[in-house]
Amino acid sequence: MKWYQMDVDTVEQKLHVTTKHGLSDKQAGQRQKQYGPNQLASEKNVSKWLIFLKQFQDFMVLILLAATLIAGMLGEYVDAIAIMIIVLVNGFLGYFQEQKAEKSLAKLKEMSAPIAAVLRDGKWEKVPSRDVVVGDVVRIKSGDRIPADIRITQSSSLETEESALTGESLPVMKHAASIARDKLDAQDQVNMGFMSTLVTRGSGRGIVVGTGMNTVMGQIASLMVKTKKTTTPLEHKLAELGKILIAVALLLTALVVLAGVYQGHPVYNMFLAGVSLAVAAIPEGLPAIVTVALSLGVQRMIRKKAIVRKLSAVETLGCASIICSDKTGTMTENQMTVKEVFLNGKWLNVTGDGYDLEGNVILNNDMVDRNFPNLESMFLYGMLCNHASLMMKKGKYYVDGDPTDGALLVAARKLGLSHQLYDNYRVVKELPFDSDRKRMSIVVEDDNKMRFLITKGAPEVLLPRSNYVMREQGRKLMRTEDKQEMNLAVDKMADKALRTLAIAMRPLAKEESLHSAVLEKDLTLVGLYGMMDPPRKGVKTAIEECRDAGIKPVMITGDHEKTARAIASELSLLPEDGVVLNGYQLNTMSVSELQNIIDRVYVFARVTPEHKLKIVKALQEEGHVVAMTGDGVNDAPAIKASDIGISMGESGTDVTKEASSLILMDDNFATIKSAIIEGRNIYENIRKFIRYLLASNVGEILVMLFAMLLAMPLPLVPVQILWVNLVTDGLPAMALGLDQSENDVMKRGPRNPKEGIFARGLGFKIVSRGIVIGLVTLIAFMLAYQGNPDNLIYSQTVAFTTLVMAQLIHVFDCRSEHSFFARNPFENKYLVLAVLSSVLLLLVVIYWSSLQPIFHTTALNLKDWVMVLAFSCLPSVLFGFTKK
Ligand code: ATP
């Protein structure tokens, strides 16, 4: 018998579990050990050896190795071995960089891994989906990906989309009843939920019957095709640039070799020097360092509670010019508290804060109780038409579920309604809440088999559906005056920044149809709730900081226009001449009409998720780089269409998370701002080390080229060139990738996404600094050579030391867009350490007598050092006074 043919009791027995209690933690642990994690077998990892060997596949490195081999065979053992060792160390460095990047990417993937709600030992818990085991009772709701194959045990308007399995993109209704037929295809097993398929509507529960590779999804082999590693636009741009740089480096190196041979240097010497120079000058490590910088930046973002799902988002973040943010939960606390109630034409206040149950219902300073006409039934309706539960943790109440629903539970408890009342009612049907409908309904049956409908939702949505209104004397026909009175009450609440919610009901005749299309009409409006949701701490400052940084924050909310306006004013988000648009106005506008005014709009109220897409499009047409937040399943298209899609870690659905490129672990607007600062900083750091590496390379090539053109001896021998490449390009460049941001990074406007890598004067800085580094090295070499024409090793040591020191001083210059003196050079501890260790290695190479023959060096005296330092400071001092 198949799972879909069994009834729920049989499934429970077979899997030794009950839907009331779930598995025990012990059982779950045992099953995890027995069956392994609930995940599809992924492509095998690339072997570490291969990654290591990959470091040597570069064409020039291969030529260098071949040349070294020849040198070795010709008897130049020392040089050959030294070069081999340096190339090997370089390979290790590249390997470790790549490993680090891989590891942090894997960690990221793990952090954004899906979560499942499971019942263990009678309590609902959230566990990573990979820990779900056969027999687990799971809860699913709209927006979730189903964590494993489940036999559905309970469903409420549950619909799933199984196109990944069946190719059919229309949603399938799911229910719990067993099916007698046999040999059903997946799409006909309507009481089963399949791993990785999507819940598009409603909610439900189920028992896990298959995990990992033992699921229908696991059997589809094609899914296990390795997904290609994607490169970010910057990595792509750099790869393109790399090709040009290789060509230029090769050309210049060829020039050096030709000039050298022409001036009478032995061909073999020039060849080895040329190849070493090419290896040093070609920035083959650039893409790897960029990936490391990106992934290290991403880790810093994690510490600030932002998880980057797509590395490319890091770059785009720095270009964001608009942040469209949800209000509820992102700009506000999402801790709803009912503060006011409008009932029987009277205003009642509810005291107390947050989800604390302390509080009373007050009318004109006097406490009222359940006998106040209609109050008990209004609060009871609010309790029944509800999906949340009140839970206790460390002596404090919190809400599991929608905070709006939670607020209604707390209000009911303040009036003394206990949750035992639930036992008197049975839910027969449910039409779930979503942001498009802006309402939720249930049909309940009481002990006397009397049925009635309860609907709660946005007042403007419920009022047109209501023909009656509840009054002290009972139900009466809704007149125009009653409608006006209700609208006025809604406005009054909204003006105080309260979220408004209406509650209505309809008694149902026994035989009345429960079809969704006909249920929510002819209602009796009972009353209105006004809920407070205070702004989050820190959001106001974050909004100001965004504005200083040239980024416009925009509020998008499903709430009432006036509520949105009031909160936006509280947060100083809405300037005096700022426009507030609502969903009805948006409906009547074309994208181009919207485009005309969109730059003046700061708040969009009463919007549905479809509107969000229209807003994104209009903004993008206006040339903006748009960051858009979202949490519900219907927000996914807008998130996908935006330049930076942002989802909510706490309240978001799996679908929005998958569509997004950034997840906010704390759902907080201020976190978006932190991520943008980090995004800008990472990009600036990448510019910093590109500037450093390329200027150093220009210097290295030029010193050789100038010397050859001037018919001088070689200023640097091959091992020295390779050593410079290894030591100065390695750690200091990495440390620049970890640099702190400049103070004004959030005072500059957003970066133009079309700008090239060398924009904003970077190209000039590279070439000018490079030329001067080359020149000072050459001059130091010439002076040393003139004084000691017989001691070439001495002059080469001077040139080598000057070049290294000039680069190590220049690295501090690269930290600022402005000038060397604009920043405290000791601020970046990693850089100070990297430079100190490079200096130490330099001293070792110069002064350790056993290494001197290998590196062709000799000890320098104090006078030499004065000259070396004077020359090596020159480039930074010279340019320290200009901003160019
Ligand atoms: P955003 O998160 O985009 O700022 P929002 O969360 O306030 O907006 P929605 O959740 O779409 O927007 O809510 C819109 C309206 O729907 C609310 O103002 C309220 O009147 C009503 N509403 C909200 N939650 C519920 C619920 N659980 N049941 C019934 N009605 C609800």
From TrEMBL:
Gene Ontology annotations of biological process type: intracellular potassium ion homeostasis; intracellular sodium ion homeostasis; potassium ion import across plasma membrane; proton transmembrane transport; sodium ion export across plasma membrane
Keyword GTP-binding: no
Pfam families named in the record: Cation_ATPase (PF13246), Cation_ATPase_C (PF00689), Cation_ATPase_N (PF00690), E1-E2_ATPase (PF00122)
Top-level taxon in the UniProt lineage: Bacteria
Main subcellular localisation: membrane
Cation-transporting P-type ATPase N-terminal domain location: 2-76
Xref: InterPro entries: ATPase_P-typ_cation-transptr_C, ATPase_P-typ_cation-transptr_N, ATPase_P-typ_cyto_dom_N, ATPase_P-typ_P_site, ATPase_P-typ_TM_dom_sf, ATPase_P-typ_transduc_dom_A_sf, ATPase_P-type_domA, Cation_transp_ATPase_P-type
GO cellular component, one term: plasma membrane
Membrane disposition: Multi-pass membrane protein
Family the UniProt entry places it in: Belongs to the cation transport ATPase (P-type) (TC 3.A.3) family. Type IIA subfamily.
NCBIfam families per record: ATPase-IIA1_Ca, ATPase_P-type
Protein name: P-type Ca(2+) transporter
Native source organism of the sequence: Lentibacillus kapialis
Name of the gene this protein is made from: yloB
